[in-house]
Design brief:
The structure holds two protein chains of two kinds. Chain A is of the alpha+beta class. Chain A has a single domain (36-157), classed as Beta Barrel (Lipocalin). Chain A has helices at 3-34, 113-116; strands at residues 35-46, 49-60, 63-74, 77-92, 95-105, 130-138, 142-146, 151-157. Chain A has an eight-stranded antiparallel β-barrel with strand order 1-2-3-4-5-6-7-8. In chain A, strand 1 (35-46) and strand 2 form a beta hairpin. By secondary structure, chain B is α+β, with helices and mostly antiparallel strands. Chain B folds into two domains: 2-120 and 128-134, Orthogonal Bundle (Arc Repressor Mutant, subunit A); 181-259, no CATH class. In chain B, helix 1 packs across helix 2. The longest helix of chain B has 33 residues, at 145-177. Classes of the chains: A alpha+beta, B alpha+beta. At the A-B interface, helix 1, strand 1, strand 6, strand 7 and strand 8 of A face helix 4, strand 15 and strand 16 of B.
Chain lengths: 158, 265
């Protein structure tokens, strides 16, 4: 093999290597966006009510679990919230399209779903409902979830 | 005076090249180059060309010395053969190449893998880059090991460079993809003990002041507050954190979402 041929082979190998590296990174990046857990501390205020929750999201490729634990204060009345929503999802760039499969209320929960529905999207409370949000990266440590112009909460990667 | 290697060479055991015209042994294993006596070189050439056959001592005397009008003693002859053997070992071929048949001569056994190779003249291989002295040194000598490994270094440098470019591209790609959402917030100052950041473009300082007044909002000392309110949406978001968001640092944050709050002009 002469010099120009060697150079050509080297260039091709380099390009191949670059393409492979970029492709591998792309796959890894895609995998990371659909396989992660995060946790948020969330307070929802409305009138004189306050819903205080630890929200835990688990994304596992095409399905996941949203776990809500906390308390709902409405005036003098305080109730416990402990629910899980199982969902399927697909992701397009930063936008996640979710559909609840089942909603589970644990025995520790004594809150009324109708009350909670005043502060939370029904997606978390009932099966068969769609829900979309955007997850904006906030450094590599977490995401800011938003359903519109105003961010909903910061979810820290676990 | 230096000259480039040309003609053919013998490859011994895939590890040592013997260039007869250059009187040179080159190791593919360790890059070693050993310049041989001309006479020793002629003997090795004769032995390799008649591999598997017994080469009588007189033929070796003829090829190495008498052909050039020189006389040689047995002692000098065996010293040259010894140097050849040492040279082959030094070049990384540990097995016996030259076998002595007592009182008859020498032979290169058939089992020794030897190939005669005529390089493509248009090819510049690693082995062809070296240069040798026209008059060889009287003993086997090491010749510029650095020069022989230069092509390998060049490949290593080029591949490293390619790898570096790949990493740089990935890093650039990574930095564009992993933008920090909080980089859209502007620091407006310390208000009631905490550092306040407002979402640029949609949140005014006036709306923040109205928000804290209406909701009795207080924050801890040195707390960082990211506030968003949109005049068109009846929502407000406060994300309270331990410190400003920066790449690579974990942050503990509490998000507060105010339903049905809207800034009044």
């Amino acid at each position: 093999m002469n010099k120009p041929q060697l150079f050509g082979v080297f260039t091709l190998l380099s390009l191949l290597f670059l393409l492979l590296a970029l492709g591998a990174y792309r796959l890894y990046s895609q995998y990371q966006q659909t396989h992660f857990n995060c946790e948020a501390m969330l307070l929802v205020h409305k009138d004189d009510a306050e819903l205080a929750l630890m929200v835990n999201f688990i994304f596992q490729g095409d399905n996941g679990i949203a776990s809500l634990k906390g308390t709902l204060k409405q005036g003098d009345k305080t109730t416990s919230v402990s629910r899980k929503s199982y969902f399927d999802f697909n992701q397009m760039k930063q936008v996640y399209h979710l559909k609840s499969i089942s909603a589970v209320t644990t025995p520790a929960d004594n809150s009324d779903s109708k009350d909670l529905a005043r502060y939370l999207p029904l997606f978390y409370l009932e099966p068969g409902l769609k829900f979309d949000f955007t997850a904006y990266p906030a450094t590599k440590e977490g995401y800011v979830f938003s359903t519109g112009q105003v961010p909903s909460f910061y979810c820290a990667r676990k | 005076m230096t000259s480039n290697c040309s003609g053919y060479y013998y490859l011994i055991g895939d590890s040592v090249e013997f260039w007869p015209e250059e009187n040179l042994l080159y190791s593919r294993v360790n890059g070693e180059k050993i310049t041989l006596f001309i006479a020793a070189s002629r003997c090795l050439q004769l032995l390799l060309s008649q591999q598997g056959e017994l080469v009588p001592q007189r033929d070796l005397f003829e090829a190495g010395w008498q052909k050039n009008g020189l006389e040689v003693s047995n002692n000098t002859f065996y010293q040259n053969i010894l140097m050849l053997r040492k040279g082959l070992k030094l070049a990384g071929y540990e097995q016996t190449v030259i076998k002595t048949v007592p009182r008859q001569g020498l032979t290169v056994p058939s089992m020794v893998p030897v190939a005669k190779i005529i390089p493509d003249t248009s090819t510049t291989s690693a082995e062809e880059i070296f240069s040798v002295e026209e008059n060889p040194l009287p003993t086997p000598s090491k010749v510029d090991k650095k020069a022989s490994s230069r092509p390998r270094h060049l490949w290593a440098i080029l591949l490293s460079l390619s790898f570096g470019v790949g990493i740089a591209l990935l890093a650039a790609w990574n930095s564009t993809e992993n933008k920090n959402f909080f980089s859209h917030f502007n620091f407006v100052g310390n208000i009631e003990q905490c550092s306040v950041y407002l979402h640029s473009g949609q949140t005014s300082l006036q709306s923040y002041r109205q928000f804290i007044a209406q909701n009795n909002f207080t924050c801890k000392k040195q707390e960082v507050v990211y506030f968003t309110a949109n005049p068109l949406v009846p929502r407000a978001s406060v994300i309270r954190c331990e410190w400003p968001f920066a790449s690579g640092t974990k942050n503990l944050c509490i998000s507060e979402y105010y339903l049905e709050w809207q800034h009044n002009e």
